[in-house]
Write a structure and sequence with these properties.
This protein is α/β, with parallel strands linked by helices. It folds into two domains: about 50 residues; about 260 residues, 2-enoyl-CoA Hydratase, Chain A, domain 1 (Alpha-Beta Complex). Strands 1, 2, 3, 4, 5, 6, 7 and 8 form an eight-stranded mixed β-sheet that branches. A hairpin with a 2-residue loop joins strand 2 and strand 3. It is globular, with a radius of gyration of 21 Å.
C-alpha cells in the first residue's frame, strides 16, 4: 500500500504523482476486486516506475536537496533513536543554574547493552512537541545541562554518545542575556577535554556552534542525507547577497554535504540511508546508526583518558592540515 500521509519534498513531485495514481488504483482494486483484473498489473508497473525514479533522484542529490531531506519532518529524531537503541534510559533534567531546556535531551542508559550517557537535540514531531522542544534550538541552559552530563560521564567512566540535529542555537534575546556564546564555548571545551570516549552522529541538520558544542568528538558520524555547516544556507545568503532566496547558491558553495566534509576529514564515517531518505525506513536507519555507533565505540575500548584526549586533539589538528592542503 502507498502511504497517503507521507510528506513529499518539492523535487519529489513526480514521485508524489505516481504514488497518487497507485493510491487511486488500489482503491479501485479494493472496491471492485475481480472486476478490475488490469488494476493489479498497472499498480505493479507504477510501483516499479516510482521506485526507479526515486533511486535516480536520490543518486544525484545536490547540497540544497540534501538540506531539504535533512530537514524532512518525518526523519527519525532523538527520541526515536533512544527508543530504538537505548534501554533503561533515565532522562536527567536541568542545568542546576537556571532551568530545564527541552531542546537538548540527555541521560543515562544502555546502548545495546553498553552503559552510556546519551545527549542530543530533539526537534519534536508535531506542533505541540516542536514548540516544547523549541524546534531543537537550544538555549544556554541546554548546553550547561550537556556539560553537567559530560561531567557525570567522566566521573563514572561512561562513554558519551551525542546525536546532533539542530538548525542552530536559539538566537533570542533571553538566550543572549544568559550567556549563549559562553555556554556554547564551554560545552565545546568540555567535549574536547572529556576523558571518556565521545562519539557524535549528525542525524539531520548540524547547524553552526549549536552543533559543534555537542560534536567536538573522537569520532563524528554523519547520515548520508544530512548536512553540517557553520551557518544555515539562508543565513549565509542573507549575509553574502542580502537575499535569503539565494539559499540554494549558498548551500552549493558552502561544502556542507557528508562527501565534502569527509574529503577534509571533518567527519569520519558516512552512514548509508535507505533510498528516498531516512524517513522512508525509520527502523532501518536507526539500526544502521546503532551498528555504526557500536563499531565506533569498540574502536576506543581499552584506551585510558590521556590517550582518548590525545586522539581527539590530533583529530582536530588534522582537520586544520587537511583544510590547508585542500
Amino acid at each position: 500500500m502507498s502511504d497517503p500521509t507521507r510528506t513529499y519534498l518539492d523535487f519529489e513531485r513526480p514521485i508524489a504523482e505516481l504514488d497518487s495514481k497507485i493510491e487511486e488504483l488500489e482503491a479501485i482494486l479494493a472496491r471492485n476486486g475481480e472486476d478490475a483484473p488490469d488494476a493489479a498489473d498497472e499498480i505493479a508497473k507504477l510501483r516499479q516506475k516510482s521506485a526507479d525514479q526515486l533511486k535516480a533522484l536520490y543518486s544525484k542529490l545536490d547540497a540544497w536537496r540534501k538540506t531539504m531531506v535533512a530537514r524532512h519532518p518525518e526523519r527519525p529524531h532523538l527520541k526515536d533513536y533512544i527508543a530504538g537503541l537505548v534501554t533503561e534510559f533515565e532522562a536527567l533534567a536541568g542545568d542546576r543554574r537556571f532551568g530545564e531546556d527541552h531542546a537538548i535531551v540527555g541521560g543515562t542508559g544502555r546502548l545495546r547493552g553498553r552503559p552510556v550517557v546519551v545527549i542530543g537535540h530533539e526537534k519534536g514531531n508535531d506542533t505541540q512537541s516542536r514548540l516544547k522542544h523549541n524546534f531543537g534550538m537550544a538555549r544556554p541552559e541546554g548546553y550547561r545541562k550537556a556539560i553537567r552530563l559530560m561531567d557525570l560521564a567522566e566521573r563514572f567512566d561512561l562513554p558519551v554518545v551525542t546525536l546532533v540535529d539542530t538548525a542552530g542555537a536559539y538566537p533570542g534575546l533571553g538566550a543572549e542575556e544568559r550567556g549563549q556564546a559562553e555556554a556554547i564555548a564551554r560545552s565545546t571545551e568540555r567535549c574536547l577535554t572529556l576523558g571518556t570516549p565521545l562519539i557524535s552522529v549528525i542525524t539531520g541538520e548540524g547547524g553552526s556552534g549549536g552543533a559543534v558544542a555537542l560534536a567536538s568528538a573522537n569520532t563524528v558520524l554523519m547520515l548520508e542525507h544530512s548536512v553540517y555547516s557553520v551557518i544555515s544556507p539562508e543565513g549565509c545568503a542573507s549575509i553574502l547577497w542580502r537575499d535569503g532566496a539565494r539559499a540554494r547558491d549558498a548551500a552549493m558553495a558552502m561544502k556542507i554535504t557528508p562527501e565534502d566534509l569527509m574529503a577534509v576529514k571533518i567527519i569520519d564515517t558516512i552512514i548509508p540511508e535507505p533510498v528516498g531518505g531516512a524517513h522512508r525506513d525509520r527502523s532501518g536507519t536507526i539500526a544502521q546508526v546503532g551498528d555504526a555507533l557500536e563499531a565506533a565505540l569498540s574502536n576506543l575500548d581499552g584506551l585510558d583518558a590521556g590517550e582518548i584526549k590525545r586522539r581527539r586533539r590530533d583529530r582536530f589538528l588534522q582537520i586544520g592540515r587537511s583544510l590547508l592542503e585542500s
